[in-house]
Amino acid sequence: MSTVRGGLPEGRYGRSADERADRKLKIVGAALGAVLLGVIGWIGWDYVSGQSVSAEVIKFQVVSDTEIEAHLEIRKDASVTGVCTLSSQDEEHNEVGRADFTFAQPEARVDEVVTLRTTGRATMIELVGCQQAASATR
Questions:
Q1: Residue 4: band (very low, low, confident or very high) from pLDDT cuts 50, 70, 90
Q2: pTM exceeds 0.70 for this model
Q3: Rounded to 5 degrees, what are φ and ψ at 133?
Q4: DSSP string for 43-93
C-alpha cells in the first residue's frame, strides 16, 4: 500500500510565499523605523540648536505676599543679550505676576536670582520662555 502525500516536503524547494512576504515586511518595517528615528533626531537637533538662549528655574522662594524670588540658570552665547519671561500663580492657578528679565552679561552661563513682584501670594513660578533681546517683544 502506498501513502499519498498532501504537499511538497517543507523547505526542499525554497521558501514558501508566506516566508517571502514575512521577510519583505521585516525589511520594510526596519527601513521605516530607521527613517522615523532619523526624522525625530533631526527635529530634536533643529529645536536644540535653534535656541540661542535657554534657561532653567533651579529653585524659587516665596518672599512675601507681593514677591517671589527665582534662581535661574541661563545658557546663551557670550555676545547675546537674553530676555526670559517668568510667570507666577496663586493657589487657585490665577496668574499673579509676569515679567521679562534681561541678561546682558558677557558670559555663556549665567546664574542669577531675580525677584518677581506679584499682585497676590504666589505659590509657584514658571519659566515661560527665553529669546534674544533683538527679537524680544514686549
A1: low
A2: no
A3: -65, -35
A4: HHHHHHHH-SEEEEEEEEEEEETTEEEEEEEEEE-TT--EEEEEEEE-TTS
